[in-house]
Every structure is written in C-alpha cells, then in structure tokens.
C-alpha cells in the first residue's frame, strides 16, 4: 500500500515544523511541492536522498495527480503545503481530484487518516496539520486574533470577486478580526485597497492593521499601520494582512485585540466587577 | 533579564508540538498553565525537573500575573496554551495585564519578540505559535476549511451573547465555513442549537457539519453530521464544531469544502475550461 501525507510546513523555518511533520518528511521517499516550499525544505536539509518533484504556482492539480500516481505505485509520498494543508493548501485539490478519479474508501471509516482504493491500488491518506499563516503572523504582532476572526483570501483565481466582496461586508458587519491571505500580487493591485474601503464602512479608520511579510523567514518584515493606512499599502505574495476589530488597539508596539477580561474584572485587583461572577455569563457589554 | 514564552501546545499530543515549542519547554525553568494542559505535558515527560504552576480554568489573569512576576524575578517561564496562544489563549490576557501594570517597551521595537520593563525588572517576551484546534480538527476531517472561514467562540463568559449572535448572522450572510470553539458546556446547553438555527436561515439543512472531540488525544471522537443534525447534537468542552459553506459536501467519509478548481478546470484533463485561463481571474461562478 502506498502512503500519501499532506504535510503542513508551518511558516517555513525548521523550528516551525511540528514533530509529526518532521518525522513524516524524514520517512518520505518522495517530496512534492511548489518550488518555493521545496527550496525551503532543501535549506533545512530535509530532502537529502529523496525524490523531489517541484511544480509551479498554478499547478496544484498536477501536484495532486503526481502524488496520487506515485502513492498508487507504492511510494511513500509527502505532498507539502506552506502553513496548513487545509487552509488554501493542497487538501482540497487532492480530495477533489480523488473524487473525480473515482477513489473509493477502503476502510469503511470516517474522516482521516484513511485508506482509499482505485482499481488494484490502495493509498493511505493522512493530513499533517501545520501552523497556518494567520497564527504565525499573529505571534509576531501580539494578540490580534484573540477574538472571533475571519480568514479570507483575496485571490480571484478560483473565487469570483463578488463573493470575496460579499464576505468582506459580512466580516465588517460581524466586527470580526480579518486576516487576509494572498492580499496582492503584481496583477492584483486594487483588491487590498478595495478591501480596506469596504471595512472602513464598518469600523474606524484608526483601527490597527498590520502587514507581515515572510514571517519566520529571512528578510521578515513587520509593519504596523491602520485600516486607513492600508489604502496606500504595498503588499506582495508573501504578505499576510491583519485588520483588528473595533476593540483592537496598539500597546507598546504590539497589536492587542482584547479578549474581554476588562469587561468582567478589575485588572488591578483581578476581582470580578460589581454584578459579574467568574464562570457565569458576562452581564455588561453590548453587541 | 527574565524570559517569558507564551507557548502553543497544538492539539495536545507530543507530535503536534512544533520544534520551537519543544525547545522552549525544554529550556524553561517554570511551566505555568491550566491543569489539563499541565497534565498533558507531564504525560509527554516534558516537565521533569521544572517548577510547575497549575491553575484552574477561569484563572487566566492569575496565570498571567504569576508568569509576569516570575519572569520579572529573572526566571525563564513558559506559559502554555492549548492550540495557539493567540486564539482564545493566553496572549491577550497577558498583554492586557502588562498594560494595566504599566510595562513599557524597552527595545523600541515593533511587534514581538520584544523586551519590556517594569521598574527595575526587564522581561523578554515571545509568542511561540501552535496548531490551533481549527486546523487540527480539519486535518481529521478532510478539507473543511479550504475556503474562507470564521473562527467563533460560543463562550459567553467574556462576550455578550448578542455579539456572538450578530457574528453568527454575519458568518451566514458571508457563506463562511464556521469553526465553533467552546460550543457547549454543562451550563451552556442551548447556544450550539441556537447557532445551528441561525445558520439554517442562510444555508441548507444538509450542509455538512462535524463534531470532533479530543482531537489527537486519547478517546478522540470524530462525528460527521449535518447542520440540521447539530440541533440535537451533544458537545462538550473538548469538542470543536465545524460547519461547511454552501459548497461543502461529503466524499467517501471525508468533509470536502472545494477550493474552486472545478469552476476553472476540467478535472479529468486538468485543462482550463473554455473562457478560463490559469493565472487569470475566474470568469464564471457567482457571488
């Protein structure tokens, strides 16, 4: 039986790998991925003695096909994604392709890991989760994601812009913290500005925002700005953008979205405020 | 100078730690955390020879205070959170308390890691990100989070219910995948049902949903159901709930939210559909 592991690399440095990802990459015979990620794994020294297949950016279906064919042939394959394979990564294109090719469940199970069969071939499939960009970037900022958050990709390669725009409005209406993946590229130059314009309809122009480029990689850049500042900001393919909710603020160079402790407790004494009880619902605060 | 590390444990098994988390825990003199997480670290054998402070569930501010005092006293402290410290974890209460206590930045920097000063004391502060529950749970299901997603906590201890409800409506309007943290407790028994009722106003009752309890821990349970099924579902403090968007479907026991490849490509030939071009915006599909 072949084995296919969808491996989340985390932000892209060795220390950001999970022990499971490191172990699976160590045992893999073949590693398949987008060329940037393959390059990072090479620098980490994790590809020595392995078969390596590097593909271009829009070739996700080719990567998935190659991984499936090799696993069907009995190889132990690691198909890598930056961050987490489930967040704009390889998990969905792989399952979509398996469905199209007619892979059937072979173990009667639910969820993953699992065994899947096509003709005479059988494949063990496992997803190894990783630290997604939102969490990596948040750790470099302070606590921007400490309250309810939307992850939203601005890429229009597979999503029509009207749907992206509808989601930006919804994120504004719900006062969600917003993390933008793929905020900008050479071709897509106006979407980030338009996103800021939409969110400005719902929250103050001073709302903290941040651009983090190449988190945990060489030449990492962390820029704090405001929602209004995003109107003129420049981002790239390696940038993740974070926009606070209406309660977010800056504190000594950090991006602080409060969890709500100050609504319930006197932070000086740590005692509950009058009318509030630890372990019971918050009584004050509005929607 | 004392050192304070906010360490994300990931789902709670040794293999889910990042290499950085393992290293930081290895070097820490004192480990502070909620008793469940301390218990998990003990089982992993990571606490031998260390000072250990375990606190109860609603004592986040006490944990933060203890960590700060010890770091100010020169200790090397790891303050642990399940999953990621930035997602409903210890990052926000720590920064909120530092602000209240009057800690000032000592390095003139932006973001974290950084050095902070209070009186004569100085503390190095770093957040070590981890795999948050949403990603751990997604990896056990298939690809539920492959499109834009909201992370939403149903806990009303620090958030008024009307705000939670407003966010559920927004998530419905935006057709976001929804991941519910803290969906239910003994006291909070009706919020999960009410959440399903709200989302049923926006998407079909057959929409896939899942309950995952104790992901990557002993007695892990993965249950696939539907949005309608959540009306009668039982969840607990260790459960994370995932609700698909309008495109999500089941495929051979996996929870598949498509990324959108089938809108642009013929999955059999992997060629772009008529009118579509790889690397250019999607032309079909609606909002």
Describe the structure.
The structure is a homodimer of 287-residue chains. Chain A has helices at residues 19-27, 35-43, 60-72, 91-101, 133-141, 161-173, 191-200, 261-264, and strands at 2-8, 30-34, 51-55, 76-81, 104-105, 114-118, 121-128, 142-143, 149-153, 177-181, 208-213, 221-226, 239-243, 249-251, 254-256. The first copy, chain A, is built from eight helices and 15 strands. The first copy, chain A, has a seven-stranded mixed sheet, sandwiched between helices. A five-stranded mixed sheet of chain A has the order 9-10-13-11-12, with helices on both faces. A three-stranded mixed sheet of chain A has the order 8-15-14. In chain A, 27% of the residues lie in helices and 25% in strands. In chain A, a hairpin with a 7-residue loop joins strand 11 and strand 12. The mean pLDDT of chain A is 96. Chain A is of the alpha/beta class and 287 residues long. In chain A, helix 3 crosses helix 4 (91-101) and helix 6 (161-173) runs parallel beside helix 7. At the A-B interface, helix 1, helix 3, helix 4, strand 5 and helix 5 of A face helix 1, helix 3, helix 4, strand 5 and helix 5 of B.
List strands and helices in order, with pairings.
The structure is a homodimer of 287-residue chains.
Chain A: E1 2-8, H1 19-27, E2 30-34, H2 35-43, E3 51-55, H3 60-72, E4 76-81, H4 91-101, E5 104-105, E6 114-118, E7 121-128, H5 133-141, E8 142-143, E9 149-153, H6 161-173, E10 177-181, H7 191-200, E11 208-213, E12 221-226, E13 239-243, E14 249-251, E15 254-256, H8 261-264
Parallel strand pairs in A: 1-4, 1-7, 2-3, 2-4, 8-15, 9-10
Antiparallel strand pairs in A: 5-6, 6-7, 10-13, 11-12, 11-13, 14-15
Helix pairs in contact in A: 3-4, 6-7
């Amino acid at each position: 039986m072949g084995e296919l592991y969808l491996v989340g690399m985390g932000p892209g440095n060795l220390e950001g790998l999970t022990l499971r990802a490191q172990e699976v990459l160590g045992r893999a015979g073949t590693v398949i991925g987008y060329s940037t990620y393959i390059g990072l794994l090479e620098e980490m020294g994790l590809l020595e003695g392995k078969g390596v297949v590097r593909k271009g950016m829009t070739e996700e279906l080719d990567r998935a096909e190659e991984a499936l064919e090799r696993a069907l042939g009995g190889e132990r394959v690691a198909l890598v994604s930056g961050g987490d394979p489930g967040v704009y990564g390889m998990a969905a294109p792989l399952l979509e392709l398996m469905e199209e090719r007619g892979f059937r469940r072979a173990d009667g199970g639910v969820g993953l890991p699992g065994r899947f069969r096509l003709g005479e071939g059988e494949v063990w499939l496992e997803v190894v989760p990783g630290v997604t960009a939102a969490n990596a970037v948040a750790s470099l900022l302070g606590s921007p994601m400490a309250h309810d958050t939307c992850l939203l990709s601005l890429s229009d390669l597979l999503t029509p812009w009207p749907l992206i725009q509808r989601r930006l409005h919804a994120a504004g209406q719900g006062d969600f913290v917003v993390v933008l993946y793929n905020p900008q590229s050479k071709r897509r130059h106006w979407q980030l500005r338009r996103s800021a314009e939409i969110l400005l309809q719902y929250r103050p122009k001073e709302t903290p925002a941040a651009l983090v480029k190449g988190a945990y990689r060489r030449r990492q850049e962390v820029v704090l700005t405001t929602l209004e500042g995003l109107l003129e900001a420049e981002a790239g393919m390696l940038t993740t953008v974070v926009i606070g909710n209406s309660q977010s603020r800056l504190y000594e160079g950090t991006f602080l979205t409060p969890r709500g402790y100050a609504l319930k407790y006197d932070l000086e004494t740590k005692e509950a405020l009058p009318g509030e009880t630890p372990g019971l619902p918050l009584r004050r605060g509005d929607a």
